[in-house]
Amino acid sequence: MRLSRAAVLRQARAAALDGVRRLNCWGSHLTDISICRDLPNIEVITFSVNGISDLEPLTRCQNLSELYLRKNNITSLDELFHLKGLPRLRVLWLAENPCCGQDPHRYRMTVLRNLPGLQKLDNQAVTEEELSQALVDGVEITAPPARRHVENGWAESMESSAAGSTAEPGSELLSSSLEEPNRIQEELGMKLVPRDKYSSFSSQETDCNCKKRNNVLNAILLLMKELDTEGLEIIQQTVTRRLQAFQKKELQEE
User: Fold this and answer.
1) In the chain, where do the E strands start and end?
2) Which of 2, 38, 83, 219 supports an S-S bond with 27, CB 3.0-4.6 Å?
């Protein structure tokens, strides 16, 4: 039975006042979920089969552990940005939204890369192998939808054109010279990048992915010196998992 909008609002207000932990608004013709800003203690929300497109109000639901959004109007995976700050989120059902796109693997990997705490996605258990692979195949979402360009249901970072375009904010950091990354690597006791090898990369690797890889590497090296022991241990664990995923993939290919 579908609930009217008025009934949904009454139910949500009751949940806010009485400390109810669950809210079920399945098939209620909802497009606006701003009421969620008043539900800091809610733990389970069912919003499936509605017309929801904006997930920003959910940022206030810090106790949320299960979220059901199947069959809505979420057009961009950038909406996941609003869920990244929910520390207890373990179950998400996002299938049958436009943001899922035409590539199921890319979709799942992107969700898991940005929400690594999930235990179940679209009614399918999340494995450790998937979490490791998501670091390789998933797309990191670093900004809400309003700050990014959306095309064909997928959110893509707006990149400057090859010549004469204005650089994005922070591009100066990503375009740091070889001297700064090498200095940082030396401080960290890491092997330096030979200048001739780097020059070879610059002249031959014109592919966008290669450029992104080098930019990301430079940024990571610049930021690592700001981390304490705990932060560096997290980096070490993440790198170990990624290396294991690569090694497993290579073994399978052989």
Assistant:
1) 22-24, 44-46, 66-68, 91-93, 120-121, 124-125, 149-151, 154-156
2) 2
